[in-house]
Give the backbone structure.
Amino acid sequence: MPVLKDITLGQYFPGTSVVHRLDPRVKIILVVSYIAALFLAKGLYGYALSLCYLALAAAVSGIKPIQLVRGLRPMLFIVIFTAVLNILYIPGEHELFTVFSLSVTLEGVTTAIYMIMRLFMLVTCTFLLTYTTSPIMLTAAIEKLLAPFKLLRLPVHELAMMMTIALRMVPTLIEETDKIMSAQKARGADFESGNILKRAKALVPLLVPLFVSSFRRADELAVAMECRCYHGGAGRTKMKQLRVTAPDFAVAVPSLLYFAGCVTVGRLL
Amino acid sequence: MDKGGEALLKTEKLTHIYGKGTPFERTAIKDVDFEVHSGEIMGVIGHTGSGKSTLAQHLNALLKPASGRVLLNGEDIWRGEKKVSSVRFAVGLVFQYPEYQLFEETVYKDIAFGVKNSGVPEKDIESAVYSAMDFVHLDKSVAAKSPFELSGGQKRRVAIAGVIAMMPKVLVLDEPTAGLDPKGRREILSHIRAYRDATGASVVLITHSMDEIARLSDRVTVINRGEIALGGSVREVFSREDSLTRIGLRAPVVSRVLRRLHAMGIDVDCGACTVEQAIAELKRVAGDARA
């Protein structure tokens, strides 16, 4: 099922690189600041510097570039769509040519290129986060980072638990989808041909069993959690405590400075 | 081992690799040569993760071989893309826990799903569905019910009927009795045999129960870590106890008892592998002794 194998969301590639070992909270903060920097950065140099950082992080993590690129594939449509809109609708002084009375300008093309780069880097850096951080670490970190909001009565623990469960279920659901799809194909179901309407109809034999089994799984999980006396976050301790140590600072501080550099360089030059 | 004549379904040097090019790459089956003749029940046995299910999905073109070929009636099923769907109707595959694939509003519609897809004329669908229900001993009154109201065992039978209704020439069942009680197991196995006897179709029965194989199959293939470890008639395979033990499988209790008796100097034929055969054999020996 090539379509399903492309979904790498929430997938984790275990490893022992520096990127893997970094405190997950630090990683999240870095990813958020990196994304902020991407939006603030201007001009070729800003983007080039951001790309260098990403390439370095990817190289250090030991994640194969092909994996990162594979994760981008589902994005392709959105990227092309926005790029085309940008090219056609951005007004500018240097007109290159016209299509259906819409003028394509140099400014439009450069904006589109920057936009593609920005989107790719944005998605790649979040993929790098999920590839190198186990879902459990990730949600533990989110829970910690959101802890201040507990004062506002935000059910932080419950949200984190829901995320953990959702992320944990992604591969299971993919596997299940794969299995049901094969089973229906064995009965001659055709998911690949026909027009949109026909294809949507063909999904019924897939979606109904998938829903049924998701509810069943949720039910089983709830029972299993109750059997182990789960009653929400109050008074719960963690088996693995998160600690920010010297190496975390050693990565975080230069990274943040670098991001600041990415933002300013475009404005200065 | 070969009964002569061309095999109905055959694999040649079949190899499958999961997750090629990712860190999770794993060779599931390697150089598997496997043959099913017309009208026979072929048992496939092996541990969990030995590649049995992977092999099953190759038999009806759900998976594409990394290398090697799958031949149906002597023709490569991957030659010419169009044929793939026809292969799926000729080789019916019942998955593990097939009850999870049910989706229609009524049992009737669910069983008819495969038949409709196979392009059978509208007027013949009804008879195909009811005869399939007959094979698995589902009462006609169930046809109008929702499959989700049924018991686990009944759902399983509906799912199997959904494949039988397509009248496949080869019926492949991946652990059809998993999770059923002993009575349910016996019934499912007898339905499978009934289908073979009535239609002359071949059956590939994948299981990890030696007793099921002993009761039902004509020939056995033992698969271990993705490779064929042993193959032959039930009698031949079960007589090679040391080879079976080496891969962590055991011959059925009955064969082991007979073997022990033989070792004690009693002249029994160790080939019997079902309780009935063993009783007959012991009676014969007892009769000989008395005479």
